[in-house]
Write a structure and sequence with these properties.
The protein is of the alpha+beta class and 165 residues long. It has a single domain (5-158), classed as Trna Endonuclease, Chain: A, domain 1 (3-Layer(aba) Sandwich), CATH 3.40.1350.10. It is 32% helix and 28% strand. The protein is built from four helices and nine strands; from the N terminus they run αβαβββαβββββα. The protein has helices spanning 5-25, 41-50, 89-94, 150-164; strands spanning 30-31, 54-56, 62-68, 83-88, 101-106, 112-116, 124-130, 135-143, 148-149. The longest helix is centred in the N-terminal third of the chain and has 21 residues, at 5-25. It is globular, with a radius of gyration of 15 Å. The model has no long low-confidence stretch (mean pLDDT 90).
Length: 165
């Protein structure tokens, strides 16, 4: 089955909204930009560079949401894998505004965990075949020890926003 770009981006945007709603429930002021679908390869490249999943009010920070088909819970200590994908190397490196954190959302469980980009010096580059997109690409992987509870990220973001007021 070929990769359906429109479906994938539409579905991804719904996870951005879900995560933003969760953050808002806990007092993080944020918004999700309107969904944009590229109509050409050049536009897709432009969106890779400029797209922002969640914008944090008052700080200028950006969060990146990655949904996962992997099953995991809310406690990173119980994360059942030694590492996980953060992003493709190209996507992360080409972004004009780097996210301050990634939020990993488990589709099977609804759990969320956080990965601060301050951990990037420990990320490992790995090339492998992505069965979903049917491409071989280079990915950043983060070790289990650098995955944090979503509550830690929420507290960090609220503190940052309060300092800006």
């Amino acid at each position: 089955m070929p990769y359906d770009y429109v479906h994938a981006f539409t579905e991804g945007h719904s996870y951005n909204e879900l995560v933003a709603s969760y953050l808002q429930e806990y007092g993080v002021r944020c918004t999700v930009p309107e969904l944009r679908i590229a109509s050409s390869l050049a536009e897709r490249r432009h969106l890779t560079v400029t797209e922002k999943d969640i914008l944090l009010d008052d700080t200028g920070h950006v969060l990146e949401v990655k949904s996962s088909r992997r099953s995991f819970g809310w406690d990173p200590l119980d994360f059942p894998y030694p590492d996980t994908i953060v992003d493709t190397v190209n996507s992360y490196e080409s972004k004009k505004v780097k996210p301050c954190a990634y939020i990993l959302y488990s589709r099977p469980t609804g759990a969320m965990v956080a990965i601060g980009t301050s951990t990037k010096p420990r990320w490992k580059k790995t090339k492998f075949f992505d069965r979903y997109q049917q491409i071989t690409d280079e990915f950043y992987l983060v070790g289990k020890d650098d995955i944090k509870p979503i509550g830690d990220l929420i507290q960090y973001l609220k503190n940052a926003q309060n300092r800006q007021r």
